[in-house]
From TrEMBL:
One of its GO terms (cellular component) is outer membrane. Residues 1-25 form the signal peptide. Gene3D superfamilies: membrane protein fhac: a member of the omp85/tpsb transporter family. It is found in: Membrane. This is Surface antigen-like protein. Residues 223-392 form the Bacterial surface antigen (D15) domain. Its main location: membrane.
Amino acid sequence: MMYKLPFFKLLFSLSLILLVSSVYAQQDSTTSKKKHKKVKEPPHKGSMYLSPVPVIGANPAFGFIYGAGASASWYLGDPKTTKISNALAGVAFTTKKQTIITLKSTVFGEDNGFILLGDWRYLNSSQPTWGLGTGPQSARLADNDFGFDDGSIEGNSEADMLEFQFFRFYETYLKRIGSSHFYAGIGAHLDLFSNFTDQLLNLDTIPKVITPFYAYNEQYGFAQDKSTLVGISLNGVFDTRDNVNNPYVGRYAMMNVKFNPKFLGSDQSSTQLWMEYREYFNLTENHNNIIALWAFANLTLAGDLPYMNLPAVGWDQYSKSGEPYSQGRFRGQNLMFGGLEFRKHLFATKKNPKFFGAIAYINATTASSKENIDLFQYIEPGYGVGLRFNISQKARTNIGIDYGWGSYGTTGFFLRLNENF
């Protein structure tokens, strides 16, 4: 399936970003003149940096996306001993009649005494339901039986979509252990999917048109119209990054074990494991050339998960994994992802020494299906390039435009606030 973004949309998005950046620069210049070149106040406890931007983008699952977003960064303590906190909020609509409302946050307490990780979402949305695992069978949207050998239906129109409403509330609290970079804590997790409407499913034809979503629910005993997953988690984090918005140095590691017992409200009991690692390598002392590494494993240790809660690309906290593929394009009982980015500073202005840069990335995804596909049996590559515009020096807030290519003719255009990781 090929998705092509019309050139004028790409040009329009780029023009808007340049306009926003120009407005910020003009505001800084005007403010500076009014204050007669008053020295800017250095960051301190309570400093806040707000960066509102238009939300414009496109990908195969959502079509053309438009709305408004904001990045808020602040210090809960002395910046010398406290890392900057960040929250990303957005309200977006799409040409496929979807509504997406998100609030995602990483908050550091005073002197880095604790971390709060938040992921709140409301979606009135739709996505195609691909086959499980990576490999050729994952490109099939439907079949005339529970297999994936013949009769596939290609394309990705509104008629192929699984429509649904979704509410997520994830909040994790981690306490710093002594004066180290280690944190440990617990989390609460709620996923509610409702009003499923499987547009491609047709049980009245001969042969029947069966989707992966319908087949999975029949095989593993889940309802076809809704699903609920309620969990508690045990978490450990190691974090030496200098900034969560756009790290120049440091590393990050996280382990999360999530228990989803039926007595808390989950449709079925299950256990999940999340393991993640990130590291940032400086090639020059001025942070103008950085290689960034991101890898994670999302594994089902016990039980069965609802189809939409199975490990999938694009369903991480900030929904940034798996470019150039759309959210949920690869899904399975187990999934692993790894990626490299080269980040290069290209152009400075008098007011902003990090104003403009570019990135190039490459990644790989593998997912399993309990029935017939093992991890690493098929590996799906992704690669692409992007531009970066810095709109807040002190918070290191960037606007990013990425374009990428992958398997099966996939292309994707993404607009981001802050770095992908």
